[in-house]
From TrEMBL:
Keywords: Fatty acid metabolism, Hydrolase, Lipid metabolism, Serine esterase. GO terms for molecular function: carboxylic ester hydrolase activity; palmitoyl-(protein) hydrolase activity. This is Acyl-protein thioesterase 1. Hydrolyzes fatty acids from S-acylated cysteine residues in proteins with a strong preference for palmitoylated G-alpha proteins over other acyl substrates. Mediates the deacylation of G-alpha proteins such as GPA1 in vivo, but has weak or no activity toward palmitoylated Ras proteins. Has weak lysophospholipase activity in vitro; however such activity may not exist in vivo. Residues 64-78 have a biased composition (Polar residues). PANTHER family: LYSOPHOSPHOLIPASE-LIKE PROTEIN 1, LYSOPHOSPHOLIPASE-RELATED. It catalyses: S-hexadecanoyl-L-cysteinyl-[protein] + H2O = L-cysteinyl-[protein] + hexadecanoate + H(+). GO terms for biological process: fatty acid metabolic process. Residues 243-338 form the Histone chaperone RTT106/FACT complex subunit SPT16-like middle domain.
Amino acid sequence: MTMELDWERLNAIFSPRQDILDGIKRCAETPGKVALFNEIASHIHTKLAENGEPETKRRKVQAGPTTNGSTNGASSAGNPADGPILLQVKEISVSVPQRKKFELCFTRDFLYARLPGTTTPIQAMTYAWSDIEFAFYLPVPEKTQVQHNYVLFPRGSTTPPKSGPVTIEPLVFTVPATAPKEGTIGGSEAGSAAAVSDTFKGLFHWAFNRRLRAAGSDVHIVASDPNKFHSMVRQPHRPNEKAVHVGAFRGSKDGYLFFLESGILWGFKKPLIFIPLKRIAAMSYTNILQITFNVVIEVFPEEEGDANDEYEFGMVDQQDYGGIDDYVKRNGLQDRSMAEQRKGKLQLAENKGKRGADGDAANGAGDGMTELERAALGEDMDDDDEDEEDYAPGSDDGSGGSGESSDEDDEDEDDDDDVDDDAGDDDEGDGEGDEEVGAASCVMNASTTMLLSEKHKYNFLTVDAQIRRLIVVVFSILALFLFGAPSISTTSTAVLSSLAQQQQQQQQQRDKTHPAPATTTTMSSIRRAAPMVFTPSGRHTATVIFIHGLGDSGHGWADAVQQWQGRNKLNEVKFILPHAPAIPITMNAGYQMPGWFDIKSIDTLSHAAGTAPDEDAAGIELSRAYIYSLVQAEVAAGISSDRIVLGGFSQGGAMSIFAGLTAPFKLGGIVGLSSWLLLSRTFKDRVPAEGLNRDTPVFMGHGDRDPLVLYPLAQASEKKLTELGYKVTFKTYP
């Protein structure tokens, strides 16, 4: 008979160290080595039993004393397996620390998990009742069938260690909304438990409260309450229920934030984080984009004298800003979004990514990484755990387990047909294409941003077929401008060159008269990456210059162009996607991000046209001069200016409208998506006397629930332009 490794004992000893277990598996290639490993495991197991403490408990005591001052002796009550089992619940799907089905056993002093058919507790899943610091009962997000996770945090496990291996982890297991199956409950208290076992919730709430109170603990189970906090994002799986979680990313790992009465929890993938309210020094918002923003939680250190810690969670939906901000104010948490200490931070990895090839990423303070990047470095530490066998919470109803994610069905073939059909409709000019756009209002309401990272990409073209259809419509509008606009004589290259020189001279004169503060970007100090250029496959007869929004880059719209060109559409059109330079954004605490001009306050995007305070006129004019230089280069290459379309999104759309309508040359068309009119108080005075673009077609598209560039601002902008005699087509997307 072949000798085998004693995996039950090895797992019990080394379960926190998967690397050791993997090494043993690789090296146990001969019967002699197998016997040696088994002898080592037996020796360690015997020593642990003699010491009367599980390994994880001993490590925790070495790391520092407990803080509850408990003297009931539960933490040193001996081997957990020696105590009689008061309650046993079988077939429980655990996701943390290990992803497998276990039996949960309740004794007087301990809660532990064990494999079915065994009597040995799993050392990494053994918890003294007196060590449990926090307990939660939370719904599992994105499940058709209702499921909940119980989350227990022992002391020392609420946040991951700054260095070194994880020595103790919380316990997370999933229960359905049904009653336990017959025969799954045992132990000396099974009879009493039967009276409260109509649901798993009734059973476990009763059991946990009973054992915690018996251990002298005042910990109570905290549940989410939609009346105190709920997300504004509609749940696709259970649309009639309010979601009590907020989707977010930490590094490149997706998860969920729960804003609870006792603190903020991040789950349900390792490492879980719980930050009690009493430890939160401040909360702030960074990387504010059109559809997302980041939440930064500053946490008081555990040891006096240490610096505060920061935990950063990215890609939070803008729809949830109001609810999160209410939570901050209701709990008296200080909002430090405008704190001086946040100025000068390096740009987040989600906005740098591969497009930061000029080496700026190497110039950060310390390790040059944000909290999100540091989290990403450890993202693979537990990936192997995700696929452990026998783990299937919710398998009875097919809804999957906690913390799992499933891939979307591949609909590329259907999407391709839809795109072709929509393009044809738009070219013919009937109303069906507009109905397709209305179905895709998510782009105009929440807008479309592509975030690039060295670790991952969020590509809006892969998210939804409706978004793809809208992109087709946008470029169909551009095509209409290019091939339907009347031909008017083009301003010569000399005029364009003179204009660029004039803009530079004006800026230099302003710099001399009013020296710019340190945070202001001047013409001489600006650094620009070369724009992305997509050359036409046919003879070049027209050009589209499309300008991205705040925090994005030209890369964010590259896939749309590539998809269009891949279908052999507009083969004679050259596409230019410029990149904004990284500049300090006052609205975002001086944080540097790609922008065409500074935004002083979020109120700038909330006022009706003509009343916005303190616009960055100098920055706007600088970007206008740069856009004109792109037009100048195209004219020099032989393309008439009335065969050039300026288009853009959000900040880029605002620049397109402003630069296009004030240009001293005739354009083929102007497109502004989720945009507004810049410098509206003095706009009329900035238009050349010739008014060459008075008849140029202008298209403005806006969602009536846009959370950042508010709909009334777009309406007021369109009204003002119409009153000034411009031909504006304004499309509202509900």
